[in-house]
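Interim report to the steering committee. The following record documents the input for Antitoxin (69 residues).
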Amino acid sequence: MRKNYDFSGAKKNSYAAALKKQITIRLDEDSISYFKGISEEVGIPYQSLINLYLRDCATSNRKLNLKWA
């Protein structure tokens, strides 16, 4: 390992704009268990599965049919 490194020719990360933003979200235990179960089957972290599902809903403009009693 070198003592000094030259970063003068370094470039910015072109993927930096696509990085994820950390938030806090409260989910019920059943939802978490559902995605954790799927994550064990497919080998993808459950947070990534939740993100993929939400992204799919957003890109397909899917909306919930909510009716309050």
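The helical segments are 29-42, 46-59. The committee is asked to note this result when reviewing the revised timeline.
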